[in-house]
Amino acid sequence: MTVQSTTNRIDYTGNGVLLTYPYDFKIFADEDLDVYVASSLQTLDVDYTVTGAGSETGGNVVFVAAPGDTLAVAIIRNLDITQETDYVELDKFPAETHEDALDKLTMIAQQFNESLGRSLKFGISSTFKDVDFPDLVASQFLQVNSAGTALNFVTGTPAVSGATFLDGSDFNAYWYDSSTYASINAAITAIGATVATLVVSSAETLTGNLVVPATLNLVIQKGGSIVKASTYTVTINGPFWAGEYTVFSGFASGDVKFGGAGLREVLPDWWGASTSADNAVPIQSAFSCVADHTATPLKVKFTKLFMSAAAINIYQNTMAEGGSRRLTGILFSHTGDGIKSTWTIDSSNAVNIFVKDMLIKTSSGASTGGGFVDVGGTFVHVEGCRLEGFAHGIIFDQTEISNISGNEFITNSIASVWLVNGDEHTALASGLYTNQITIDRNNQFNGGAVGVADDGGTNHVITENNFNAGTIGVRVNQVNNLLISGNEFESQSAACILFAITKIGTEAGSRSTTATVESNLLYPDTGMPAIDCEALSINRVNVTGNAVFTSSTAFNGMLHIYECTLMDNAQIGAGDPDYLLNNYTDGQNFVAAPVWAGSAVNPVIGNGSINAKWSRKGNEVTVSYKIVMGTTTTYGTGNYSFSLPFQAAAGVMDFQGTGMIVDATGSYTSVVPLIVQGGVVVYLYYTGGVVGTAAPITFADTDQIMFTIKYLLQVTPPADPDPITEPDVNRIIQWSNVNYDTFVSSGSSITSAIYSVALGTKSANTGMIMLTHDQPYTLTITVSLTSGALPSLTWSNGGTPVDEGVLSAGVNTISITPTAANPWVLIALSNAAAANWSCTATLVATP
Fold this sequence. Notes:
By secondary structure, the protein is mostly beta strands. The chain contains 3 helices and 70 strands.
């Protein structure tokens, strides 16, 4: 062989589970590997075994016990420096043995190179050589001698003029040891304005308020600390350094302030935060340690998982950063909010807050708050965190120009993300402030009712997330301009996306204006729709290019949308992938089987096939049909009709298309599809009349009917073109119709032509109005009886129905008081008489 790789070591990180770690370079014997765990040399055949000795591609190191989580594992080739190849004079040249010897020499050179790579060396242009490192001496400092030619150890306080900290701050002229003074206060007084470094190596109790000047570097070594006495405080204006240990003992939040430009980051450890007990005070002290947050940026670094029994406030120009979203951060034990960012409502506040790479979790089991909550902030970013166990993982309330990116949401009971627009979270807060929000590259969203509860605002983007389980992936109410793009929705038990007419909070909701749903994978639970739309929940939706995995209705409730475009949505995993899911119908998958009917007896497709696909742009629908007869197809009797995905518009015109009938010989007959205005089926006409049984041909196996028609659908225009309104004004938001035969609304009035046949008892034609808050309303109903007896009126606001009795002909006045919890008012008109009756009613609600 030849040695073509320079690799002679490989490094891993243990996880407490994995036993086998491969190596990919050659060794000659098991003993040729040194194996270290956390820099501790392991013992062959005791701690581990080796496979693959002699193999060109390496083998495995198999541990008896798995290396612990996060422990460094190093596998290093370390050959004995021996020469064991013996050449016998006049023997045949031993090529393989000779090559192995050369390989071993090369490998030994590589292991020397790897060892040298971990050594301190002079730079390539240095003229120094043959400089010996002196023997170690306890409790002494290493120093270059006065001639600059050698290293030696010295006692006392060495001069370090011109040296710097690793972060670049000036180490400068001298070190001072606080233990040589009566107190740390005395030391700082003595040093004065001298540019120097003060080292604290033991506990120093304050004798007064301590102010560290900007000219002094303060270094607190492990074992050193500043201890509070009386009401004294500490202000540090110069550079500061300490490790992961307590350096401020007994101080309350705000007692220690940093005001100098030399501050790089602070640790909660400095105030005594530990991995046990309640650390709310030390954690809050870290966030509160800057004298002026508007002038001094702050980074609070979490190197451990700390516990807290109270919410933590984060301030302007602050970054909270952990080292791992699984291992470092804050474990809360109370039921309220976790980290809070609170600002003036109904205004824009440029706060510049960044929370990154942290675990934010509660163990309470009964959380009512949010893991991270911002109220009124602009430029707020939460990235790479794990938010677990709260009622809401993240709450953005009047938050603007902000991001939620790369996070993991686990078992947050109500919503992983709640975007608030109004006063349902913060009293007296108005709408129109939760704007320019991006939610991207987040994961899980599991264990709760809703992944993202978007309760309103403007220009929200939800993109490239993985919604795994939960009841609803994205729930939308009262949003202007929403983009849902490139997400993966899996196993939602109700719907991947729901356009709702209510909010998840206590404030009444309203319809959204415009949304685009594109390039998503939509995979709900069996029997659930991919997209669901409640009545009057949104004006315009563009649904394009989505991959849908469902055996049920893909897009449900689309007739509730004023303008809806569904194009290029592909069925995957179920059904026929050759047909595009450009459609929805209530109660069936129209792609699979439109209804083929006969005017007398319905035909049955049998082992033939009947399919349709369609697209919708605004109110215009294009639908194409293909019917192929089979050997078991029966043809019914009478004229044929085929069901439409939507009812055609009434009072406009009849609609025509093009098509043909092709028999088994290839002969064809042209046909004209026709939809009568307001119709729900399409008929086919040829020169002899309507296509039906034996007309224009006697249908048989392999015969085909193919046609396409474009028409306008019957929709109700939106009553409220701008649903984003101030939340604290009592008003009528909207009307909606459930069972009225026709429905027309104008402003705060609704006019419905109501018709019912032999209703028997009060169960009948119903309509809904939606009123805000709990202010009483006067409902004026003008009734004009067409035939039969006058109807009765019953209304309900979620509780026991109120029976207003039989209405009078003409004007009727009724008082209604809706509740804030349920703003919908259901109105039912019915007639107890068995005879047919009809009337026209005009309803007006006035606050």
